[in-house]
Structure formats: structure tokens, C-alpha cells
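We both want to read C-alpha cells more fluently, so let's practise on a single case. Would you write everything just below, so we can both look at the same thing?
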Amino acid sequence: MSTDPSYQEKNLQIGTQPEDPEKLEGVTEDFEVFKQTKDGVNFRTVGWPMATVIFLKTIFALGVLSIPAAMYSLGAVGGALSVIGWQALNTYTAVLQGDFRNNHPRCHSIADMAGVVGGPIMKEVTGALFIIAYVILTGSGIVGVSIGINALSHHAACSVWWAVLATVFVALAASVRKFHQIGWLTWIGFASIFIAVFILVIAVTTRDRPAAAPQTGDYEFGFYAIAYPSFAAGMVASCTIFVSGAGTSAMLPVISEMKNPRDYRKALFICMAIVTAA
């Protein structure tokens, strides 16, 4: 095998598998976004169990509460098939993203990957699109927090003040330097939303009849095994289920801080299995 550095760099950049991964392990480390050095800050501190929890927090919170309405539109059979199909596609896409990133260790985001494929212009366009998307997601999270606190609190403060408070906490959490340092926060975040959804499921399934249904006599529940939605309603419901597990692009920065980026698939498959089942 050639030991020419230019050959090794080209081999890593084009994504081909090295002839002997063990011999190229040190070279691969040289191309990582965060190199493991004795003198510098060690960013590679995330093990695959913590990466799994970070992935779960990223994916599970994205749109789980909107899935019941989508299942109502599609019916039990169509909704279940949509969940399985879209989550399988999202998992496959995440595998491709992780493999591409590990074959090009300098990539830290989708924008970097777009730069490898299409050059600097595509990198900047893709980066701008993701900045806009993350601003919108952050805004929705802040609005959600302010509405939730406002609903639970009898304080005289208005929703704007709660939104400001939520913004401060989001900014502080986002300013933490390493994913490893906010690992405990992802545990709390995932556990809280999972428990909240679990409580909601118990609350609505242990009642004899829905609150909006007639209190006596037969009633039409309105949920069918096979539904026949309109084209618009069916597409909205299908897209809702797809988006609920489509946050896999946010996993890429986590890979760069994993102790062993090759463990990415292990964390991914556990995460997506739990999300799909839930």
C-alpha cells in the first residue's frame, strides 16, 4: 500500500475504504475536526451511550405530539405503515450521513458535507438554510416554553417575559463548549418529555369515553383502521410523521466529539429503535 501522504489524503477525501484501517488510524485522526492531543483541549469525550441520549433528545422532542393527529387522518393501518416507512428512511439517511462524515473526518455539519460534494458556493447556501431552520426551531422551542410556563403559572408576568427567560436559558445552554458537559441536561430533557407524553397517553386512554363525547349512549369515536383522507390532509399527516424523526442532521456535530466516531451506528440504531417504538 502506498505511504505517500497525498495518496492517503485523497483516499480519505473521496470516501474510499483504506486497504488497512489499522495502519491508517493515525492518519484518520489527523483529519478529524477535533484532534486528540496531549496539550490541547480534548473535545472527544462523548461515549456512545451519551451520544444515544443526545440523539434521543434531538429526535424524540421534534414532533411526537403531532403524531396522534396524523394517525387520526391516516387511520391505524396507514399511520402505522407511515411511521415504520418514514423512520426506516430517516434511519437509512442517518447511516449515509454518518458514513460520509466518517469517510471525510473534517466535516462537522451538513454544510461541510455539501462543500465536499459541491464546492464553497453549495456549502454557504446549505449553511444559510440550516441557520434559518435552526433559528425557527429555537424560536418554536422558546414560544413553547413561554406558553407552558404561562399556562402553569398564576404569576402576573406576561408571556413575553417568560419568552425572555426561556431565551436566556437557551443561550446559556447553547454556550456550553462541549456536548459532554451538557450530557446531564439531555438526560433530563429526554426523560421529562418522555414522562410527559406517557402521562398524556395514560390520561386519554383510561377514560371510559372522551370528554367531548355524549355522556350517555353510543357515540362515534372517529378513529378508523383504514381512513380515506383528502390528498392535502394525507400529505400533511405523512409529512408530519416524516418530520417527527427527520432531525438526524443535528447528529453530525455530536459524531465529531465522540471518543470513537465509528461507534456512531451503534448509538443511531438504538436511538431510532426507541423513537420508532415510542
